[in-house]
Specification:
Layout (H helix, E strand, L loop, with lengths): L6 H15 L16 H7 L10 E13 L2 E7 L4 E7 H4 L6 H10 L5 E10 L5 E12 L9 E2 L5 E2 L5 H6 L1 H7 L4 H20 L3 E2 L5 E2 L10 E5 L4 E5 L4 H9 L4 E9 L11 E10 L3 H20 L3 E4 L2 E4 L5 E4 H9 L8 H10 L10 H12 L8 E7 L15 E9 L2 E8 L4 H16 L10 H8 L5 E7 H8 L25 H5 L5 H9 L5 H5 L3 H14 L9 H6 L2
Parallel strand pairs: 3-5, 8-12, 16-17
Antiparallel strand pairs: 1-2, 1-4, 2-3, 4-5, 6-7, 9-11, 10-11, 12-13, 13-20, 14-15, 17-18, 18-19, 19-20
Helix pairs in contact: 7-9, 7-15, 11-12, 13-14
Length: 572
């Protein structure tokens, strides 16, 4: 057996073998038909109405109190925890008491999945519980869960709180911190409410390619891959916009997609390289119509999560009921800096950035410079839902030119609590204008802009066949869920956020321990105590290690000489 296993892991593996020796399959294949859930019983049990008198539950053992021939335990299922009461003679009515005396008391552990049959009742202390008549082993846990103790007043001891561990081992996080499950329940409500809203309007949910020969639809750096059979370079999509517009060309009045996007860019508390976006395109509409649609939709989504259109985000109370404030891009910069950049050329914008202490580089064109000023000086001020409208044409290659303002396009972004969560256009459907915009993007790419869009000849061909006036919208689902669940990092709303490679635990050799004076026959004992490196041993309490060595010698019935205390002290 591996010397890297802790004492607990070794004991659980031994219990696993003992269960099999008793003829009990610790991982049975048969279905276990559950008829009730913990929270339903706790919410609805009525002792006077004989409810829940024949129930079947399943879940993890989370606590145990063994008291001779009777015991209490807590069972945790997908809805919550409920106390169960086990009496030896009830679950073992015959002469054979193995299921209670051996299986439950000695071979089952915290974290094991069990199934129980029984009936609900109220204990003498007034707690709704389930009296167990039959017990079934459903899955043996061979790695112990973190021990998280919760007091009745809500105080938590030894919480599983390290963010890296929580995000990396989400399966453990949601087991010992079940309160975080509500974030993901609400995430599902957000998506399902939006889907229902769109479906009621008659718009159709579709799917578009994730692997694309041309990265387009947004300004972002793509991930690249290679298709072996076709021997061609492909990109993970940075947006699904251009494919959805092809479907508008094909004659659909409204199409939308919830999907994963991939952008090979930085990671921080609001950015994950893989994220979920919703994009929708509706024919014969414009960006002004889209603003009203977004207000209606987000108010409905917020009510679905909270019952009201108001949500608390940190110290801010955000109201998603419209109407939302509207500011043009130039107006917002002037409002928060006092500077009018509307008539500035690239040199003037570079000087303004320098005066404001904003870093620039040679790849930035006029649009990027304006965006940098906006990001640095405006965004953080936009707490209540605010539409920023009418962007410079250089910033938006896929939006239609403004109907009355030269040099601008019909675009808005929705900002809430200082972050952009939605982006919409009156879509550009002039194929000649679109080609010229792509050509400008190619020039920026030639200057080193890795986020510039590529030329998409097939999309241009589609536009040449004719696309009706259309409004399009993209909403970042992860950021929206952050807002509606009052979370401050994107990792909290993703089941499995992107992480750096996990550092392998260093394992010392036997010689490493021998070199500090540990007798060779005691190295494996130290490993079983959880000391896999000399550094881990030296960080421990010497007196406790000495005492634990004696305990392990007795427990494992080792016929080796116990090292003297001064010898053990010398290891430190």
């Amino acid at each position: 057996m591996s010397t890297n296993l802790s004492e607990q892991e070794i004991l659980r593996r031994e219990s696993l073998q003992q269960l099999r020796a008793l003829g009990i399959n610790p991982y049975p294949a048969e279905a276990f038909n559950v008829t009730a859930f913990a929270q339903d019983i706790l919410d609805n049990f009525n002792a006077n109405a004989d409810t829940y008198q024949n129930v079947v539950l399943a879940g993890r053992i989370m606590t145990r109190r063994i008291m001779g021939s009777a015991s209490f335990a807590e069972l945790q299922d997908s809805t919550g925890r409920i106390q169960i009461y086990l009496k030896r003679d009830d679950i073992c009515p015959g002469e054979d008491k193995t299921m209670y005396n051996t299986v439950f008391k000695k071979l089952l552990d915290i974290g094991d999945y069990i199934g129980v049959k029984g009936y609900a009742f109220i204990t003498q202390t007034g707690e709704i519980s389930v009296h167990v008549s039959e017990l079934f082993v459903l899955s043996k846990s061979i790695k112990p869960l973190p021990v998280v103790k919760r007091e009745e007043d809500g105080t938590i001891h030894d919480g599983f709180t390290d963010p890296e561990m929580r995000y990396r081992q989400r399966y453990v996080d949601l087991t010992v911190n079940p309160e975080f499950k509500q974030i993901f329940v609400n995430r599902s409500k957000v998506i399902n409410t939006m889907r229902d809203y769109f479906n009621k309007q008659g718009w159709m949910e579709v799917e578009t390619p994730i692997l694309q020969p041309v990265h387009g639809g947004a300004a972002a750096r793509p991930f690249k891959t290679h298709h072996n059979t076709l021997d061609m370079e492909l990109f993970l999509r940075i947006a699904n916009e251009l494919y959805l517009k092809r479907l508008i060309v094909a004659g659909f009045d409204g199409v939308y997609e919830f999907g994963k996007m991939f952008r090979n860019e930085g990671m921080d508390r609001t950015h994950n390289p893989e994220f979920t976006s919703m994009e929708i395109y509706v024919a014969y509409k414009d960006y002004i119509w889209m603003m009203q649609m977004v207000e209606n939709c987000l108010e409905e989504v917020t009510r679905a999560v909270h019952g009201i259109p108001v949500v608390q985000v940190g110290n801010n109370e955000i109201n998603f009921a419209g109407p939302y404030e509207r500011l043009s891009m130039y107006e917002s910069i002037q409002k928060y800096t006092g500077i009018d950049v509307s008539a500035m050329d690239e040199d003037g914008l570079l000087k303004t950035c320098k005066d404001l202490g904003i870093e620039t580089d040679a790849t930035m064109g006029k649009g990027k410079l304006i965006d940098e000023i906006f990001g640095a000086k405006v965004e953080a001020n936009l707490i209540q839902p605010t539409y920023i409208t009418d962007y410079p044409i250089e910033m938006t290659p896929l939006a239609k030119k403004h109907r009355s303002k030269d040099g601008l396009v019909e675009r808005f972004e929705l900002f809430v609590n200082g972050k952009e969560i939605a982006n919409a256009y009156s879509e550009l459907n002039d194929p000649i204008d679109q080609r010229e915009r792509f050509e400008e993007q190619l020039k920026l790419a030639g200057r080193g802009d890795e986020e510039a869009m590529a030329m998409d000849e097939d999309f241009l061909r589609a536009l040449e066949y004719g696309m009706p006036p259309t409004s399009g919208l993209g909403i970042g689902i992860d950021r929206l869920v952050m807002l509606l669940t009052n979370q401050h990092t994107i990792q909290e709303v993703l089941f499995f956020p992107q992480m750096r490679p996990e550092k392998k635990a260093k394992v010392a050799t036997v010689d490493d321990f021998i070199n500090i004076g540990v007798p060779a026959e005691w190295v494996q004992v130290l490993n079983k105590m959880g000391f896999n490196t000399v550094e881990e041993l030296k960080a421990a309490n010497p007196n406790k290690v000495f005492n634990d060595l004696g305990g392990m010698r007795k427990k494992l019935k080792l016929d080796i000489t116990m090292p003297a205390k001064e010898v053990v002290m010398s290891w430190f």
